[in-house]
Each structure stands twice: as structure tokens, then as C-alpha cells.
Amino acid sequence: MYQLVREYFEGHPEITEALPGFELKYSDLKRKMSEIEKNFEIQMFDKTGITEEKRNLRNKLITLTFRHSQRLKAFAMLMKDDTLLEEVKFSNSFVEKAPETGLIDLAGLLHVRSEENLESLNGYGISRESQDELLNAINGFKAALGRPRLGKIEKGMAGEKLEILFDEATSILACIDALINMVSDDHPEFCSGYRTARRIVNTRAELVALRAEVVTLPRGEPLEGVTFSFFSDNPLRTGRDLKPEIVKRTTKKGRIQIRNLAEEGYTVKVSRRHFKSKTISFNIVNGRTVELKVELEEE
Question: DSSP string spanning the chain?
């Protein structure tokens, strides 16, 4: 909405420049728009930055863990060490499906057993270099586990800041409204166009407010039939019954898209039977399309 207003004003300087106090209020509005954009980018960063890094580190650790397992398994079988064999033989699917802390424990066990037999493992492809590589992968993934939590804190703070900025921008526009109304008789077409620009633009049929994709963790496969329940963060719209405003389910490709969301904050609950639910907060800002990628883990 704010971007449309800005473009409209810049197209009619011959009228706006004559309004008393307009330049000051308009400068305030542009500063608020800049802050809104900055906080919006912070809120959207987690899914494209931190989560992607964590996924890559997990995949690397899975690969190294399974490789160590196969090599230690071969060593144990040739040495006829049944105790070691039982400890280190893991299937690829078992490693892939391991929860985060479980994967770290598996990799740590293999690293310890390899250290104990390192001198005898050189011919099996396990060396000091491969041990260091596995240990670095373990530590890297451990460190990444805490970063999404920090990302969520930053996103929450950005969401709270956005609510304040929306209120401040709306107050500025209310002052500008009063100035525009002063020239309604002399410039009726200008005033009519301004009122149109002030309306929420998400009612345009071609505009997609939100696109979302759901995949399984850790395989990254599309997940059909996932329920998205949308709740407005505006208490006047949500009411006391806490019923979702919109409910959507993902297609075979694990996707949904939604049009016509008002410019405000939302909380969405993402759920499917046999999977752990997730709750996500986001804001619709300046007619921009929100892109979400959600990873659900089996219970």
C-alpha cells in the first residue's frame, strides 16, 4: 500500500509541493517505508539463509557418517570383531532418518571407534585426515543447531517492530489525508486517485500474497495434504473464538498459494498426521509476495 502511495505522490508534484507541511510528513513516511523493508528482509532471511546452511551441513555429516560406518564395518568383519561390528553397522536409511542429536551421537561413536583402531585402519580409507573431516562436520552441525533459534528470535523482534512501524506509518498517512482533503474541491481527480492508492492492493486477482512449499526432513520430498491454518495477529479480526481465517492444504507437489491477504501480521500452524507441527509468523508488506519453505519431521 505505501509503495503505491509513494508512486502516486511522485507523479503529482505540482499539487503536493503546494501543501503546507507535506514535504516533512512525506519524508517521515519514506523513512518508515525504508525501515519496514529492512525488518521485512530480516523476518524472511531465516528460511533462505540459516535453514539452508543447516541442511547442507546435515547432508555432509550424513555422507561422512555412512562412509565411516561402511569402512569400520568391513574392518570389523575381517577382524572377526563381532562387538565392534554391532556398534558400527548402520544402513544409509537409518543414518538419514536419525534425529539431529541422534545423528551427532552416531557420528561421534564412529569417530571414537576409529580413533581406537586408527593405526589398523589406514588400508580401509580411514586416516587422520578423514577423522579430522568427520570431527569438523560434527562440530559444524552442532554449531548450526543453535543458529536457527537465534534466527527465530531476530524474526520475532522484526515482526514486533513491523507492527510498530505500521502504526507509525498509518499515523503519518492520517496527517497526509487531512492535507489532501484540503484540495478536494480544486483537484477532485487527484484526491480520488489518492484514495484508490490508499486501499489495500491485495484485492487484485493477479497478486499472490503467499506461496508455500512443504518438504519432508531430511529427504526433502514434497508432502501432500499438509494443513495450513492462518490466524490474523490483529485481535479485532481474530476475535475470541480463535478460529483460523483461512485453511489450505498442500497439493501433490507439496505447495499452496493464497491471494487477497490484508497487509498485517499472521500466524500459521502447519500440520499433518504423523508429522511434528510447526508454527510460523510472517507479515504482508507493501504488496510483496511472501515465500515460505517448511520442513516437517516425522514423529
Answer: -HHHHHHHHHT-HHHHTTSTTHHHHHHHHHHHHHHHHHHHHHHHHHHHTHHHHHHHHHHHHHHHHHHHHHHHHHHHHHHT-HHHHHHH---HHHHHH--HHHHHHHHHHHHHHHHHTGGG-GGGT--HHHHHHHHHHHHHHHHHHHHHHHHHHHHHHHHHHHHHHHHHHHHHHHHHHHHHHTTTTT-HHHHHHHHHHHS-GGGSTT-EEEEEEEEEETT--B-TT-EEEEEES-HHHH-SS---SEEEE--TTSEEEEE---SSEEEEEEE-TTB--EEEEEE--TTPPEEEEEEEEB-
